[in-house]
Amino acid sequence: MSRKQPSVERETSPRQTRADVVRQRRQGTKNTGSGSKVPSGSDQALRSAQTYPVQMRASKLDLQVVTDRTQRLRKRYDIAVGSPGAELRLPALPSIRPSWRWLSIALCAALLYGIYSLWNQPVFVVTAPRIEGIKRIPERDINLLIGVEGRQVFWVEPAQLALRLRAAFPDLVSTRVEVQFPNRVVVYGVERQPVLTWQHATGAVWIDQTGFAFPIRPGWHEGLPQVDALDLVPAQAGPDTLGSLANPYIGRQLIPQETVEAILFMIPFMPDDTPVLFDLDHGLGWRDPRGWEVYFGLDVADIETRLVVYKAIVRHLKTEGIIPAMVSVEYLHAPFYRMER
Q1: Is the model more confident about 166 or about 58?
Q2: Are residues 142 and 134 in contact, defined by beta-carbon separation less than 8 angstroms?
Q3: How many domains does the chain have?
Q4: Do residues 199 and 183 both lie within one domain?
Q5: Are residues 195 and 204 in contact, defined by beta-carbon separation less than 8 angstroms?
C-alpha cells in the first residue's frame, strides 16, 4: 500500500511587498504566448492605487448654460385629494426672479408716464397773455398775432414772439416776451411817441421825434400838429424792410430828424388851427388865412427874422392890391411872390 506523501502547500505571506508585486507581474508577462502584455489583477489594483483625482474647471459657456437652466426651472405642485391614491397636479409656473434690469425698466416707464401726465395737465395751459407798456395797440390784435392762448406753456418761444411783434407793429420801439410758469405769458413793449400827424395823398401816419412813420391808432391823435405833404417825401429817406404794402409810408424813416425839429420849432409862430405845409422845393410853411401859401425853407432857425421880412412883403402886397398865390421867404435876402402856384 503506497503511502501518501503529504502535499506541500505554498504559503503566501499575507503581506506582500512592492518587490513581490513587481516580480509577479513580470512572471505573468512571460507566461503569455504573444508579445502583448495582459495586466493581472494585482496590476490593475496597483494602477488604481496610483490614480490621482483630477479636477476640471468649467468654462464660462458651461456656467452660462447652467445658470440659464436654473432660471428656467419651474415649480410643480401636487395636491392630495380626498380619494386614496389620487392627487391633483397643478400646471407648472415659471420661476420669476426679479433683477436690476426689470427694476430699471419699471422706473423708466413710471418716469415717462409722469412726464406725459405733467405735460398734459390743464395747469400748464396758457391763458390770455398779460400786456405791459403797450397802450395804443389793441390787446386782441396782439393776442391774435402771438396765438399762445390755449397752448401748452412748454411750446412758447419768447424770442420768436418778440421778433414777430416788432415786425407786425412798427409803432413798437422794443418788445420782450417772458414765460412765467406754470401758465403765464407776459408781453412787455415800448411804444413810439408821436409828435406829428403826416397827411399825404394815400392817407395819414404818425411821426415820432426821429422822423419814423408808424400807423395812427384811433382815439389817440387828437391835439397833434398836422403836416400836409404836398409832394413826395425826400429822396434820401428810402423805405426799409418794415414798409407796409398798403401804405408805403409806414415803417420807414420818412423825414430827417432835423426836419421834425424845424417843424416843432416853427409851430408857435403859426396862426392857430393852421396845418404845416411841406414842399420839396420850398420847404416848410403854412396856408395863410388870407388866401395864399407862404414858405420859409427847411432851415427855420432864424424864423423870427423871416417873419419880419414876410410881414413887410404882405404890407407891400396889400398896398398894391395884389393877392398872390404863393410867397417865399426861403432865401432871406431874395424873397419873392408868385401869382400862380
Answers
A1: 166
A2: yes
A3: 2
A4: no
A5: no
86 falls within a domain: no
Question: All 3 cell numbers of residue 18?
Answer: 512592492
Residues 334 and 205 in one domain: yes
pLDDT of residue 86: 64
For residues 203 and 214, give the distance between their C-alpha atoms in angstroms, rounded to a whole number.
Answer: 12
Contacts of residue 255, defined as CB under 8 A and 6 or more positions apart, other chains included, come to: 198, 207, 211, 233, 234, 237
Alpha helices in 235-302 (DSSP H): 257-266
According to the model, what pLDDT value does residue 43 have?
A: 52
Does the predicted TM-score (pTM) go above 0.70?
no
What's the pLDDT tens digit per position in 144-183? Answer: 999 999 888 888 999 999 999 999 999 999 999 999 988 8
Name the residue range of residue 301's domain: 194-338
CATH number at residue 230: 3.40.50
Choose one of 147, 173, 191: the last residue of a domain.
Answer: 191
Ranges assigned E (strand) in 38-170: 74-75, 78-80, 87-89, 93-94, 130-132
SS3 content of the chain, % helix, strand, coil (to 5): 35, 20, 45
Amino acid in the structure at residue 244: S
Highest averaged pLDDT of the listed ranges 43-47, 70-74, 101-105, 181-185: 181-185
Q: Is 285 exposed, middle or buried (0-12, 13-18, 19+ CB in 10 A)?
A: buried
- DSSP count for the chain of H helices, then E strands: 8, 17
Structure confidence at residue 78 as a pLDDT band (50, 70, 90)? low
- Residue identified by cell 424845424 is 262
203-208 vs 194-200, strand pairing mode? antiparallel
Query: Are the C-beta atoms of residues 233 and 255 closer than 8 Å to each other?
Result: yes
